[in-house]
Give the backbone structure.
Amino acid sequence: MKQSIPSISANLQGETGAWTAAAAKSYDGFTPIEFEQKRIKADGSTVVKIFYTRNSYLLTYKDSLSAGVYASQTYKYGAAVTAIADPTKTGYTFTGWSPAVPDTMPAWALTVYAQWRKTTPDTVVFDPNNINGKTLAAKSLTVYSGSAPWETFEVVVKEPAGTQRSSGTVRLSGGSQSASFTGFDLITFPAAGTYTFTVGEVDRNTRYMSYDRNLYTLTVKVEEKGGMLVISDVYYTNAAGRSYRDFPIVFSNTYGSYTPYVPVVPPKTPDKLNADDHFAYVIGYPDGGVHPHATITRAETATIFFRLLTEKTRKDNLTKYHSFRDVPQGAWYNAAVATMAKLKIITGYPDGTFQPDAPVTRAEFAAIAARFDEKSARTTASFRDIYGHWAERYISRSAELGWIRGYTDNTFRPDQSITRAEAMALINRVLNRNPESKDDLLRSMNIFNDNLDTAKWYYLDVQEAANSHDFIRKANGYEMWKKLRADPDWKALER
């Protein structure tokens, strides 16, 4: 019922002709309207009337769980209130407003809160196809020879008890390539907690296909926030106990009649080379890249192998004197070229030049590596384009030792310039510097803007070559980094 002000009279006394001194009384919910005083008449008939207006107040409707505002209404004091429609919330039943919505507006602003009763358990859904914009897993297929047949690769996600919760697939054929697994089943969590799963690849037992047997632990953390379940963290852990949040997990397969040798006991490194200290032997460029597809010069090649000599070999053979007419004594690479020439590891050309700025070829690089071994090949390598080549015996010996690889068409392409990535891969094989996967590296390592794709065949070789580190050997012969170390002062050695 609408509130009103009672009609009240008050008698005031004063002298005839004087002004009245009437004052407005205070009432909740009302504001007096401005009025005028009057002169007092002698007959006592002077009347001063004071009128009031009703005040307006705000009625706000809020959610008790999220504090979100549903609506706001403005009513004059005493006006009838019409409540908004009852709100709804998935998994809850609306039980009313607190405090209750009044029938008429009081003389103050009022906020009422929606009250709820949970009717169904909260759930949250985890989508392995979209973990911060990336899929759970990806496939890296390396084809050594021929063409891989069509195959559907599968990665499964299992609970610790072995129950499969999700799986994703990718279908590939042909040559070396990378692709993401897709089609993972969604996983629903009914309550807050930490959930763990095992992620691994299914072995299809395809002939000539080598499958990735690494298993990873996937951890999904679920928390309750604001009455809702949310996924607060997702990461995976490798067998060495290192955890990562940079998805996808890369599963690597190889296909071909030639399966790369996986050493349990690493083969012996040539005596003149330092296999004990894994120093960085290449550095990046000012643009932040390492240029894996670029060529490498003969001077740079000599310098790299000079840096990789054992300290005793380098000290015993260090010299700045040579017979090359195009290598100045003051050149930054002079000591490296002179020392490697004294060791008979590098040679020049019949015209007495070394051609330091010329790109080194695949044959020249294989020959340099083979000269460290000092033994002859037992047979000629099967590459169909090396017969009669000046470097045939060097290429054959390097292939016999597993240091070099050819192409899928069974060629070696000896006169083609070697890329920086190919050179690093060959050097790492010679030195048995061989992390098995990105999980064997360290997060604080040097990274390069053109070597961020962990699925690239050269990713590990570049990181191995560009970071000085201590390491340990795993049971399968591969290495795992333990800590980064300072780079040697190569410039001091090369002066």
